[in-house]
Amino acid sequence: MEKTRKIHNELVELINNINCDEDSKKELMDWVDKSKKNMERIELKYESVSADKSKIDQLLNKTSSDLRLALAKAEQKSQKLATILNTTPAAILVKDKDGSLNEKNIQYDAIVSKLNNPNSLLEYLEPFEQKAIKEDIVINDIDFTINSNHYRIQISPFNGQDDNYLGVVIVIVDITE
Fold it and tell me: What is the pTM of this model?
């Protein structure tokens, strides 16, 4: 606003020094005054927008920082969970609601590698999965034998935070003695 005032004062001085009739000077002065007011309004809007932009930048930086922190924590939790899943002696398999294999741990792969037909275990479990889903129950104590290894299987419906059905979790434990 200081620049606008300075320009305004210089224009007023120039107009006062012009050799012309008073009506023309008054008309020019009115135009200069209106221009000054418009420039001041524009400068105020600019300052307001600039302040808003600064606030938005601060909020975006904070949000971005918070998101990076949350992502780092989620990645850390994911790594911990993957470590737990891959170091537990049980085989774990997660299938989504359309029946597609979603997640599995290395123990599951080890069990399936013992089968002549890798799909036979999934085919065997399919009716139990359907029952668990349909009745929304956990099915325990399903026994399965592969080449003299005995396994006990548990099938549980897997629901999300809002309690909507997401799929099934299958846990297979080697009970061979």
Answer: 0.61
